Amino acid sequence: MEPTVIQVAHYKAAYSGNFIASLRALEELLETQGVRMVYALPEGAREREWAQEMIGEGRDLEFLPVPCSFMRTLKVARSLIAKHRPTIIHTHFAHHQGAYIIASGLQGRGERPFVFCHAHSAPEDLGAPRNLVRTARYRLMRSRALIISSCPALRQEFVRWGAPPEVVDAIPNAIDVGRARYAARSRCEVRAELGIPTDATVFLLFAWNPHVKGLDFAVEAFRRISASSNGAGGGAVLVVVGQERAREFLLSRFGQVDSWLRLAPQVQAVGEYYQAADAFLSPSRSESHTYAPMEAMANGLYVIASDVPGQHYLLDAPESGAVLFPAGNVDALVESIEHYLTARPVHHREIVSRYAESCSVDNWTRQVLERYKRVGL
Questions:
Q1: Entry pTM
Q2: Topology classification of domain 182-358
Q3: What are the domain boundaries of the chain?
Q4: What's the CA gap between 319 and 227, in Å, rounded?
Q5: Are strands 4-9 and 88-92 parallel, antiparallel or unpaired?
Q6: Rounded distance, CA 10 to CA 193, Å?
């Protein structure tokens, strides 16, 4: 029986994005090694166009019921193991990841799949009793499971919360550079559709979760700039991707959608928005290793981001032009935006693009395969 890897992912977004692109590239690499890959996705993903496309291509997809209790998840995990006899189970965004570790441990010797728990966000303070339980769970992972954090800073957070260093590794998230740069429409066409003048300075912000992504910080900063007497903000437009959730957030927080703000729908060809913009904002309250600023860099955009640990990597690209400001500090965000508007600092687009390409999907898949081989694939 050929070796099998099961990817358990609670992912059902409208578009496949970087995440599914990365998994599909990994599957292709594993096929060259004689390894079969199975996708275990939530039932809600079944009707997505990208899932139907994968089914049509003959890829192995399982659809799981969610949300589930811990015991139900344990039962599902044991069923997956019994059906596919995997060598490795790799979880992403999954409910009750510990259930997969326990399900593995309940198998007989020689039949226990190694479990990789991919962490895309930092541990939270659960209160003293639950923090102790979590620490004990981390210690039980030795030789049976490994946490893969999506950036080195996130790995440090897990260690700070009690995970032994040997059970936490880091593989930075990858971006599909081709996808990030693809645009079906021109810069002028996208701006015209959003009602933006061709000579306006456009700042782009993705706000699938407006609170986490710091949309309120960006709006407050633009309000101050718009009201300032020096006129630095004249002609500046903030484009926010995430229409309905962003609109509800803005109306509840500010009571209106300001005239210099445009709400834009999600699109598959995300490169259209990057190429229509001049700069990218990421004033997030928290991040792991977020895709969007790297995609913006791949398109040569100037990036202004909060200094949360998951965005420190933006300073790794020499002369990138990326600027970090203290998270939650609106005064500092205003200063960074005004500096761009008035000074138009030079950043080396080719250097930035080359750095983004170094975080390609190909590099990510090779690193994941290396970790798989370390545990006996």
A1: 0.80
A2: Rossmann fold (3.40.50)
A3: 4-174+360-374, 182-358
A4: 32
A5: parallel
A6: 34
321 Rama sector, left if φ>0, alpha if ψ -120 to 50, beta otherwise: left
Q: For residue 175, what is the DSSP state?
A: B
Closest alpha carbon to 294 in 209, 238, 354, 334: 354
> To which H or E segment does residue 33 belong?
none
Architecture in CATH for domain 4-174+360-374 = 3-Layer(aba) Sandwich (3.40)
Is residue 39 classed as helix, strand or coil in its secondary structure? strand
Write out pLDDT tens, residues 42-64.
Answer: 999 999 999 999 999 999 999 99
CB atoms within 10 A of CB 186: 12
Residue recorded with tokens 């101050």:
224
Question: What does each C-alpha distance from 297 to 31, 110, 158, 335 come to in angstroms?
Answer: 31, 46, 28, 21
Model confidence over 26-44: pLDDT tens digits?
999 999 999 999 999 999 9
- The answer to whether 240 touches 261, Cβ cutoff 8 Å, is yes
Q: Which two tokens stand for residue 183?
A: 């645009």
Q: List the end-to-end C-alpha distance of the chain, in Å, as a whole number.
A: 13
Provide the angle, in degrees to the nearest 10, between the axes of the packed helices 243-254 and 215-227. 60
